[in-house]
Amino acid sequence: MRKLIAGMKISLDGKMEGPEGTADWVEAWSEDYDLTPQIDACLLGAGMYPGYENYWTGIQNEPDKPAWITGGAPTPAEIAWARFAAQIPHYVLSNTLTSTLWPKTRFVRGLEDIAALKHQSGKDIYLIGGARTTASLIDAGLVDELRLLVYPLIAGEGKALFAAAERRRGLELRKVQQLADGRVSLIYAIG
Q: What pTM was estimated for this model as a whole?
């Protein structure tokens, strides 16, 4: 069975967004959880997908222009992710969205659809988020692994990654790695 692997960038105090509604401490939004070789699909919530699609479409179409979230030129890793993302299926958990720009995007309407995706043949699935989708899928027992990039700052006000999640036991630490600029990568199996 395929694993559903959530990857999120958070502040040390567990925020995925600051008070202005963005994670302004994140310099690049490329996939950097060492997942690319082991995934062949992505899953996002309806709130996250439109911005995700617009951001990566902009980089795909104009890789030399500043990216609209960061205001800076896309990094080489972001350009590589934009190309990779254009090649793989994306699934959007939504009861309201009905159209996308990307031809390889499909909609899933409920938890049973996600469970069915996990039973299809293929590589693992990268759960990109957002926070509410990630928390609800963890609560439903559908997420197998959690990869966090923890940034060395206290965001204070903002949206907590796990604010809507139920209390959960059974996280098993699999790997800790210190990264550049004081960031830490944490990988947990979810039991």
A: 0.93
